[in-house]
Specification:
91 residues, 0% strand
Length: 91
C-alpha cells in the first residue's frame, strides 16, 4: 500500500526534530524536494528507507551537509552509500 507524502513527512518529523532541532521543518521540506527529484530520476515515489537513513547519517545534524547529501542521493545514491559506509566503519 502506498504511503502518502504527508504521512511520510509526519513519520520523519520526530527524527528531524531530534537530529536538527529548530531546523526540522526545513529538513522535512528538503526531504520532500528530494522525493520529487527522486521520482523524476528513478520513477519511485520516495527514496528507500536506507537512502533516507544514509542522508541523516552523512548530514550529522548539519543542514548544509543534508543539502549536499540530498543532491548526492539523487545524482548517484551509490556514492551516498559509500560516504555513509565510511562513517559507519569509523565508529
Amino acid at each position: 500500500m502506498e504511503v502518502r507524502r504527508a504521512d511520510r513527512r509526519a513519520q520523519r518529523r520526530s527524527r528531524a526534530e531530534e537530529e536538527f532541532g529548530s531546523d526540522a521543518d526545513a529538513v522535512l521540506d528538503l526531504l520532500e524536494l528530494t522525493e520529487l527529484a527522486w521520482h523524476d530520476c528513478f520513477w519511485d515515489t520516495s527514496p528507500p528507507q536506507d537512502v533516507i537513513d544514509d542522508l541523516f547519517l552523512v548530514a550529522d545534524g548539519q543542514l548544509p551537509e543534508l543539502i549536499r547529501a540530498a543532491r548526492l542521493a539523487v545524482t548517484d545514491y551509490r556514492d551516498l552509500r559509500i560516504a555513509a559506509d565510511l562513517i559507519r566503519a569509523s565508529r
